[in-house]
Structures are given as structure tokens and as C-alpha cells.
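I would like you to sit down with the pair of lines that follows and say whether C-alpha cells and residues agree.
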Amino acid sequence: MDIRTKNTSGSLCPAMASADILGDKWTLLLLREMFLGTTRFGRFQKAIPRMSPSILSKRLKTLEAAEIIIRRAAQSGQATEYKLTRSGRELGPIVENMAIWGMRWRKRSIAAQDCDVGGFMWDFHRTLNTQGLPDGETVILVQISDRTDLNTWWVMANGDAVDLCPDDPGHQVDVYLTAPLPDLISLWLGDVTVRDAIEAKTVFLDGPRHLINAAQDWMAQSPLVGVRPASKTGTGSGGG
């Protein structure tokens, strides 16, 4: 069966033709992951845990049929990797601008929605600022106090490499970071500083003094932390 994408809107508008492929939350999340360097099926599953394997497979096939991505064997020859084509790479600024727009105009609804713990922790671990950590391995145990499952995560940093594990890897813990998920998200989004969160007792840090004092330097933060919500003042139409 031919799975090549086609315009199903009946419109000659190029924007509608693009929306036929990109106008889906799973597709946008998948593309976002690719722009962040994810290339393998298993890593997509870890980064987007609510996306079922069947939906993931279908979206990959759709993007491949649209020549936005290509599939090729990994250098090891034992796995398949998905790579962006020239067409796919040109979508980068579009997806980034959609994220910036969302932070400026839809941040409240983003913060209020039910967040997937696994997806958030995946973002958290890969945005850890390793430059603020000492040389050698640093293990941070993140404890999400308002969840009864998937509430304990080990973040292991060594140089620029950062790994995430939901099960005890047996490494000695250097820092304990404990907070309810909404407060941890607020910290990650830059709505509150580490110092203010600790003083307000919404976030708790326990560990060596040099790591606690430098927490603002190594704490994970969203790449869009500098995008501030737009003021709603004056956005209505006026006249007279």
C-alpha cells in the first residue's frame, strides 16, 4: 500500500499541506526529539513515554514517506537510526518558534496540564548544566514527593555525559533533590530560583556544602527559560 502523504484538506494553501503532516502533537514531539539529537526507537520511547509503540512507528513511517526523515542502519549495524533530511532540518526554526510562542502566550496552560513524570525527567537530565559540577561523577537523586510511582530517579553526570535511571544503579548519591512535581517544573522553567525555592521550602537539597551552594549553577533548566510570558495588557482590539 502506498503510504505517501498527500493533501487531505482539499485546499491549495501550502500551510494546509504542511499541517496535514505536522498538525499532530505526537509528530511535533517526535520532531523535537530529533532536533535534540534522538535517533533511535528506544530513545524516542524513553523521551515520549505516553506515545505508544504503534503510534511511534506510524509517525516515523509518515515522516519517512514525506521525506522529512530517512531510516538507515547504525554504524554498529545492529540498530536502525532515523536522520533528518534537508527538508526535515528546515523545520527546526518552525518547531523552535512554536515553542517560543507557547512559552510567551500559553505558559499557564502548559504548567497546569498533567505532566508525564518520565517525559519531564528526560528533559531534566539532559538540561543539567554539567559545567557547574566538579570533575568526576556526580550522582543526584531526584525524589518527587507528590507521586507514588516513578517518584525516584538517579541522574548521573560525568563530564558532559549525563545518564538517567529510574532504578537504583548502585552508585553513591552526592545530592538529594526532593520536591513535588509542580515545584520542580517551576524551578526548571525558571519561575523561581533555587535559593527562593529552598527558602520557601518547596524544594529541598541535601548534600555537601559546595554542591548545595553551587546548585543554581548546575541545576537543570529549560532551554527556553529566558522567554518570558507576554503581557496580556492591550492585546484586545480597540477602536473609537
